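Q: Here's a chain of 478 amino acids. Please give me its 3D structure as tokens.
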Amino acid sequence: MPINGKTKSVSVCPGPIKRREFLRIGLSGFATLSLPGLFQLRARAAATDKPRAKTAVILVWLRGGASHLETYDPKPDAPSEFRGVFNPISTCVPGTQICELLPRHAKIADKFTLLRSMAHTGGGHPAGSLQMLTGDPDPKDKDKPIFPDWMTVANFLRADRARSLPNYVGVNPVIRYDGFTIAGSAYVNPAYGPFTVNGDPNDPHFEVPNIGFKDQAQQERLGDRIRLKGSLDRLDRAVDQSGTMQAIDDFEAQALQLLTSPTARDAFDLSREPDSIRDRYGRNQWGQQCLMARRLVEAGVEIITTTFDGPLCGRVANWDDHAVNHNVFDALRFRAPYFDQAVSALIEDVYARGLDKRVLVVVTGEFGRTPRIERVASSGGGVASGATGTVQPGRDHWPRAFSQLWAGGGIKTGGVIGATDKHGEEVVSRLATPGDFLATVYRHLGIDAAQLTIPDFSGRPNLILPRGAPIPELERQS
């Protein structure tokens, strides 16, 4: 790993562990592998010199793949079998149009750049997701990743055990697609996976467990257990000649810091936001997920993913708008207001709060949708889908051309990168690949993806990204 002109190797902690939910320490004693154990593994695994730029990434993941024609790459002049039912609207950037479903986006188009020329070969949800998140070039679906996802790699390289917050948080995390695992640590120690926040942050009873005790009684009970554990440890400490017990004490102190830290508790506490801000993001799951992401980057978290799926998507709870699942146009009409409001509020806040130089926001899914509209029978009625047997329009998987939104990160905004043909089927200029996407994200995080290696299970060094180059148009401006 070249650092300051010198080469250093990055190694991972030997020996697999079964990863438990981050922060599940049990409080019946620290003898089992838990948060202190994870901190210990991280300290052993991390490189001595790690990139520490104060940059961050928020990934908004559209699970299932959004239609590029009904979001960021409308084709109003295409024949009816491609065009769809929505019209384009002009944005605040002269010459740039997006779908009429996104009026809030249109008002702030000077604060983001659209990449309309992403393409890859993964036609299934697992393969497409693995290409985008791990750089795996295989077009075939897999049950789980064989390469680590970029979030885990970045956390491995940037983790700081002294911080009071986890460095990688998944707010409704990017982990699975149905029975497939689409993101994971692979041969990187699983301790570097996300701290996961599940549930609906808009629910008045929502809370993040095991972050910051709220009352004195909880702290006192924890203190009692720590004192009991200390008495049991005295014999071990008396015979310890290596300093191991003191090191374990240090890791336990970190765990206690997270459990008792008001900073950690407050970062996840949306009730501390004014009602006007919560309303601006939208009083729904996606809006509050994005608000939590903003709070977390302000508190110092560097890697955040948030998945847009669930009831706000329609009957099948994702963006997979085959005609058997949804009427694609009804589905997009249903979910677009939530999507439009949440994403635009996040981008506006990043700029309004002076975070735009260090916080990069990326909105993408695993692929786009077929420009040619299909019409087949619905498999079931519900939100955005006709009754069983109803013939309705849909769009299938389309990895050969789709769009992404990029904002913040110090990049030049208000532009469009690349283009597709008149039907939105093929990239005709400035082709970008998943490797380019990942290299661009890594560059923002101060990671030289072309040089760094991590050993796999056999000990063989693997480049964290064997192909792809940063997209020049998305480079940080001086």
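Q: Can you summarize the key feature?
A: DSSP finds twelve helices and 22 strands in the chain.
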